[in-house]
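Checked the freezer inventory, then went back to the computational side. Two predictions to log before the end of the day. The first one is the construct we discussed on Monday; recording sequence and tokens without edits.
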Amino acid sequence: MGMESLFGIVDGFFVAKLGQDSVATVGFTESILALVFGVAIGLSMSTTAMVARRIGEKDPAGAAIAAVQSIALGIVFSILIGITGWLTAPHLLRLMGASPVIIANGSRYTGLMLGSSGVIFLLFLINAIFRGAGDPALAMRALWLANLVNIVLDPCLINGWGPFPHLGVFGAAVATTTGRGIGVVYQCWMLGTHKSRVSIQLPQIRLNVEIMFRLLSVSITGIIQFLIATASWMALVRIVSLFGSAAVAGYTIAIRIFIFFLLPSWGLSNAAATLVGQNLGAGKPERSEQAVYTTGLFNMGYLGLISLVFFALADPLVGIFTNAPEFHALAVRCLRILAIGNICYAWGMVMEQAFNGAGDTRTPTFINLGCYWMFQIPLAYTLAVTWNWGPTGVFTAVPAAETALAITALIIFRQGAWKLKKI
């Protein structure tokens, strides 16, 4: 998961040298792309749950069949989203509040990032298969390779080094898409050559309508769950855009840094999902529960340490990307405010992934709906616009919502209904 976040960090580092409009282009695009990630993560979450359950039942062939159905669903979703995103990129930027200059110069970037949804889906889904099988090292290696390609190509294509064309911010999209595509090729090779605990062979590459619909039924609520969460970030960017491109640029830099440190925490949460699924499959719900609490403690320790880092080193961390006075101070303020909610965020994400690992995607969906859309967004708008706090009001709403989410999820988790879920 740290490797997944590295895409954004590398892109942000090189694009920041191009100015605030380029950074804002990336910020607007990332907020739209969050919807794509929401669908991909929702589908991959149910994939992890089903593969983990089959592995726990000592049924690797069943895990492989489930993996094939997941990949097929991912391809269908990515075609629909990719074509739509490619054709409507300028309109989406305009809807997000981008200036005419950003729309004119950034539409190609947005179009390619959305149009390449296929590699995003496959990268997430196949890594979900690896994690569900208890083989996250393969997922990490695929992302090592993808990031290495991105790191090499990013400055070459953005700045036109050597024989490479000078593409500006569009070069970042080309580099990222190429890196992810090569990572997917590696994943497919590992699945087909007995290198992973889930091995897909030719006889298993066929559609199984029953399993596909079972997977889809779990995925639908999972997709809605993550769309609710990721779309809320999109709404926050839209509120921030009311205060200009500099505000969006500062928010984008802070979020890039925040997510870089946050995604390893998602890796720990994914471990909770795998352990819950495998132990429920083995008929050991008590061990599932203990695994969740243990994971939560580790996650709390990690993100608690990161909070201290943000409070102490926010200024130099932002300085790695930019020293532009128009948005440097705002990014530092955003990072420190977000750090306030880290402890609660640690427990909230573990609890939600525990529900998902059990195949109970409905519960975290309703939790997200209440905490993000019924609480966070109204609070952000009230603080930022009605009370004239500006972007600071948006930043403040984030830790407030994460605290509410963690408390709610923990209360429901302790009731134990997730232990009875069948998948």
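The second is the one RB wanted added to the comparison set:
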Amino acid sequence: MTDISIEPLRPIDRRITSWMAGHGLTVLRIALGLVFLWFGALKFIPGLSPAEDLAGRTIDVLTRGAIQPAVSLPVLAIWETAIGVGLLVGNWMRAVLLLLFVQMLGTATPLILFPNETWTQFPIAPTLEGQYIIKNVVLVAAAIVLGATVRGGGLVAEPIVRTAGEAESKPQ
């Protein structure tokens, strides 16, 4: 077996990694924004969103009937599209991410409120609706990554290499 050196690939690897570090957060923000805009927009048209019925019933139960689906679904549609637009524009990220995290808490509640509809066997076999909800873990993780940058942080392609005796700088 021949030992193939990866050394000739290092410049290509560096360019690709550098591009990902330079553009990854923007791509993540836009992708997340498109998902929220799209799923929110679907809720404006009755019968178009597969999550419509479950979302309406969840809000009805959480508010003990105070907010009926006829009111809650348009509000949810506005909420989700506002998150989507906020992510796409990239302004007011703290507020947008707060709206996202609050919305995600509500989105997870059907797993508890409606176990017969979200699980075929609790807690290992979700129904299609349950899978639709559980995938939100990825959306939350993406939002956490974006949230880590609201104070100006970012991704780097190359780690900072310190020599022995060099002081580590602490963020202010």
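For RB: The helical segments are 10-42, 52-62, 69-89, 93-108, 110-113, 115-118, 128-134, 136-147. The chain has a mean pLDDT of 92. Let me know if you want it refolded.
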